[in-house]
Amino acid sequence: MTSTTRPAPTSGSGAISPRLLGDAVGVDLGKHVKAFGPLPSQHKVKRGHAGPLVAEVEASGLAGRGGGWFPTGRKMNAVVSAAGASRKDPIVVVNAMEGEPAASKDSVLVHRNPHLVLDGAVLAAQAVGSPVAYVVAHRGSRSVGTLERAVAQRTGDPVELRVLSAPARYVASEESALAHFVGEGIGLPVTVPPRVFESGVRRRPTFLSNAETFAHIALIARRGSGWFRQVGDPPQPGTMLVSVSGAVAQPGVVEVPTGTTMRQILGLAGGTTGSVAAAVTGGYGGAWVSAGAAIDLPFSVDGLRPVGGVPGAGVLAVLPTDACGLVETGRVVQWMAGQSAGQCGPCRFGLAAVSQDFAMLAGGKLKRTGLGALEKRLGIIPGRGACRHPDGVVRFAASALQVFGDEVQRHLSGQCSAGRRTFVLPVPAGKVDLPVARPGEEWR
Ligand SMILES: Cc1cc2nc3c(=O)[nH]c(=O)nc-3n(C[C@H](O)[C@H](O)[C@H](O)COP(=O)(O)O)c2cc1C
Ligand code: SF4
User: Fold this and answer.
1) CA–CA dist 80, 338 (Å, integer)
2) Please, which residues bridge with residue 389 across strands?
3) What percent of the chain has pLDDT over 70?
4) Strand intervals (E) in 9-90
5) 261 C-alpha vs ligand 1 centroid, how far in Å?
6) Domains in the chain, number
7) CA quadruple 389, 390, 395, 397: dihedral positive or negative?
8) Atom 1 (ligand 2): residue with closest C-alpha?
């Protein structure tokens, strides 16, 4: 998708100024300090003790923007406690991988304000007592060069900043895989527990969060938790970046208060280009929602729950009414099945089978008994992989069967109501052989 950005919308009566994307200063540290102020100073903490910033982040209500919306302050506290119990210094990892094909928010953020992300990494590392913060992006992405240039501008940071480039694979950005890569150079997920917060990089307690989450931390450290809570949905306040794509006039990234309605978000993306049927929320591990049911709901964890949607990694991809949701889902599921690391049977073979079923359904060749088998498969795969990759694919596929229920019935009798012959959702090019091969050197 393209990388245009626009300001946050009006929420109720007043306009909201963008917090993360407003002053785009790039890698120039002088301009960054002028726009956002200097890095706030913090005292060194003893192992097992949290710096005051941790309480401030907890009070802010910041929830992780990498997909799970887990409370960030709680995660930082858990890392600090694990460091005390294990007597090991923790490690900080910034997940700037953005493996999600329908997302571009982290790369836009890194391009526009890399020092916000780096400030957040340094401040968080100090607050949990880590001597180093690793910032990891997909190998070959422009984020790697931008981050390296930005780090080169910084001198005198109280902790070491290291930029790493990991294999450009979807699953390599899952947290256990990323910690595995930083520690051992292998970007494959590992079985949990222990979770990354207690035993991650080189078995140390690891505070690993999304790049956008760190940028919010950098602003909370400067402006406080009360300021952070001034906008957004109270359970998960603040602003969020949303990557908007599909049937909109100006695809790109917008910054909005959490809980902004889908209608407002689409308005910021120039409005829809015609009538819309449905939308992908959260990403390809997220869920379809019917546009009619979701258009005026808050784009937030609680707001989207009634229609089965999720804000996830801030993805909103809109499907026009002339496109086939089952064909689109089939393409995505095939790509996602091809992203399996091939380590766990239910993921390797189960996703391959789901992909095959969806290809038949999309092509109008699946029979009613085949649909029953597909539904059964979707029920038994979740929770049986080392990581949550298969759970996300199943959620996405199951939501398609529900949201496009009428179309499923048409396809069972060999028909399809879509007129469009071009695809809407972005799916990376390349041949997908299923089931995937066992993992090899490509994960290093
Ligand atoms: C298959 C898979 C891929 C993921 N890819 C990303 C990613 O590209 N970027 C990201 O920040 N989180 C990704 N996540 C979520 C991470 O595992 C982790 O929860 C997140 O980085 C934590 O950050 P947060 O607390 O700021 O949300 C992925 C999860 C899964 C299961
Ligand atoms: S569940 Fe799938 S992606 Fe996750 S570790 Fe197992 S094989 Fe790899």
Assistant:
1) 37
2) none
3) 96
4) 10-11, 14-15
5) 24
6) 3
7) positive
8) 385
Mean pLDDT computed over 328-341: 97
Whether the Cβ atoms of residue 279 and residue 319 lie closer than 8 Å to each other = yes
Confidence (pLDDT) at 23: 85
Please name the amino acid found at residue 106: D
**Residue 15's pLDDT is what?**
43
Strand segments (E) across 48-149: 91-95, 132-138
Residue whose CA is closest, atom 14 of ligand 1?
174
CATH code at 269?
3.10.20.600
Domain end, chosen from 302, 320, 338, is at 320
Task: Clarify whether residues 313 and 393 are in a common domain.
Answer: no
Length of the chain: 444
263, burial (CB in 10 Å: exposed 0-12, middle 13-18, buried 19+): middle
Chain-wide mean pLDDT for the chain? 94
- Residue 61 CA to residue 186 CA, distance in Å, equals 33
* Domain limits for position 261: 232-320
Q: Flag whether 105 is in a domain.
A: yes
Is 176 close to ligand 2, i.e. is its CB under 6 Å away?
Answer: no
- What is the spatial distance between Cα 214 and Cα 124, in angstroms, rounded to a whole number? 8
**Residue 2 forms part of a structural domain:** no
Whether the pLDDT of residue 79 is over 90: the answer is yes
Tell me what the mean pLDDT of segment 227-238 comes to.
96
In a domain, 12, yes or no: no
DSSP for 118-130, please give it.
HHHHHHHHHHHT-
Q: Which atom in ligand 2 lies closest to the alpha carbon of residue 342?
A: 7
Going from the C-alpha of 433 to that of each of 227, 342, 349, the distances in angstroms are: 50, 12, 12
Report which bound ligand comes closest to the CA of 240. Answer: 1
Phi then psi for 237, rounded to 5 degrees? -75, 180
pLDDT tens, residue by residue, 107-161 = 999 999 999 999 999 999 999 999 999 999 999 999 999 999 999 999 999 999 9
**Number of the ligand closest to the Cα of 386:** 2
**Position 201: which residue type?**
V
Residue 3 within a domain: no
The per-residue pLDDT for 192 is: 81
pLDDT tens, position by position, 5-40:
554 444 442 347 899 998 899 999 999 999 999 999
